[in-house]
Design brief:
By secondary structure, this protein is α/β, with parallel strands linked by helices. It has two domains: 121 residues, Response regulator (Rossmann fold); 240 residues, P-loop containing nucleotide triphosphate hydrolases (Rossmann fold, 3-Layer(aba) Sandwich). The chain is 39% helix and 16% strand. It contains 17 helices and 13 strands. The strands form two sheets. Strands 8-9-7-10-6-11-12-13 form an eight-stranded mixed β-sheet, with helices on both faces. Strands 2-1-3-4-5 form a five-stranded parallel β-sheet, with helices on both faces.
Length: 422
């Protein structure tokens, strides 16, 4: 519950359609969950979800108001936007305090209420509420409130760019990035897109079993055409929450790019997608350096040998110097435990880098090879494989949702898990 409120709600006896000249910018791909107390408000929110300006948003409506929201987020991550309906002043403030204890940082909250009081509004702003809408509301009131959260001049870009790069070729950075993106979309319920930047040899299309006719090359070679609608046409849908901007993986042309070749693509993705995972090839050029330095968070994938240690150290030093106001990069060790191969221990790695690896992923060629050959993620091959938890740990650290809640266990949990396994 961060993003502070914009302007006070105009006093109106009832909801009314906007004037003809009013422009409401469309909302980006965000998740919105509404907790209503009356069927009238639920109907208005449902109609708002059918408006073209919320066409990209994932909207879910539940009844039960504040109490239902608090209970729901005890065991699930919060969305980008929560819409809450509440009538009582004291119950509203008390409920917001309880909601704050289970709410992820960065989630915006819109409150729909019937109390027209400036003191209440100020108290809501102090608690971090983004907007207060006076009931009764019409669909356009809901559309305006949600869209303005992301189109207001002071609103931050919604997208978070995560760059994943290998310290050395062949360390499995692409595999890690694709499985982490899968965890972000599936387990953290964030809309995400994977941008495969290895245009000649990219494997994201193979890993997700996608073969789209268009992809990132169409955007890079036509920068004057890049806008939200154009990028939308290039995206290939993998799951409800995960999309792919695929590489052509053909050699009919060379891919020599200028330093800022991908800027228009990244800016457009950042404006429309909550999470962008860049699968950066192992090469050092102006544009790869720029993509790494410009990312919000960075993951370096390394194998436990001397060349990887040197390269990881070099990347750490360069990125920390170039990004003094950002948190340092994260790194993970991959392919740990290859038989008969001498390895540098994780403790020695950590001592040289002056940072602990997020996880150390063991070498398991059978399951990783099967997933790659079948065009599947590890979670699809084996739902209980230990690496899945590691991908989730990486996803949590990179997205800032490290406190993602677990479902409460019950006496029936073992039986439910057994049935899921079947």
């Amino acid at each position: 519950m961060i993003s502070y409120a914009r302007q006070t709600q105009e006093e109106q006896p009832e909801a009314s359609p906007p004037p003809m000249e009013e422009h409401i910018a469309p909302a980006p791909r965000v998740s919105v969950q509404a907790f209503c107390e009356t069927v009238e408000t639920a109907a208005a929110v449902q109609s708002a979800g059918e408006d073209r300006r919320l066409g990209k948003a994932h909207l879910k409506i539940q009844m039960g108001g504040m109490a239902a929201a608090i209970e729901a987020y005890r065991s699930a991550p919060t969305p980008n936007v929560i819409v809450l309906e509440s009538d009582a002043r004291n119950d509203l403030l008390t409920g917001l305090d309880q909601l704050a204890t289970v709410c992820d940082a960065g989630t915006r909250v819109v409150v729909i209420g019937r109390i027209n009081d400036v003191m209440l509004y100020r108290e809501l702003v102090r608690r971090g509420v983004s907007d207060y809408v006076l009931a009764p509301v019409g669909p356009i009131d809901v559309v305006r409130s949600i869209c303005n959260l992301f189109s207001a001049p002071e609103a931050k870009a919604v997208g978070r760019i995560i760059a994943v790069v290998g310290a050395k070729g062949g360390v499995g950075a692409s595999t890690i990035s694709h499985n982490v993106a899968w965890a972000i979309a599936r387990d953290l319920a964030m809309d995400a897109v994977v941008a495969d930047l290895d245009l000649a040899f990219g494997t994201a299309g193979l890993d997700y079993n996608q073969d789209p006719p268009q992809g990132i090359a169409d955007a890079v070679f036509s920068p004057d055409r890049v806008d939200t609608a154009f990028i939308d046409r290039l995206l290939s849908k993998c799951t409800d929450h995960l999309s792919l901007l695929a590489a052509p993986a053909t050699l009919d042309r060379v891919y020599d790019f200028g330093t800022d070749a991908f800027d228009a693509v990244f800016d457009t993705l950042r404006a429309t997608m909550p999470c962008i995972v860049l699968d950066i090839p192992h090469q050092w050029s102006g544009w790869t350096k720029r993509a790494l330095i410009g990312a919000d968070d960075i993951l370096i994938v390394a194998a436990p040998d001397l060349a990887n240690l040197r390269n990881t150290k070099n990347l750490f030093d360069l990125l920390k110097a170039a990004r003094p106001n950002d948190r340092p990069p994260l790194y993970c060790l991959n392919q740990v435990g290859i038989p008969k191969r001498p390895e540098i221990a994780a403790t020695e790695f950590a001592k040289a880098i002056e940072s602990q690896p997020v996880v150390s992923i063991p070498f398991e060629p059978q399951i990783f090879g099967a997933a790659a050959n079948n065009g599947q993620m590890i979670a699809e091959i084996s739902a209980n494989h230990k690496s899945i938890e590691m991908f989730l740990q990486i996803a949590q650290r990179l997205t800032g949702r490290s406190e993602t809640k677990k479902q409460k266990s019950s006496l029936l949990s073992p039986l439910i898990e057994k049935l899921r396994g079947k």
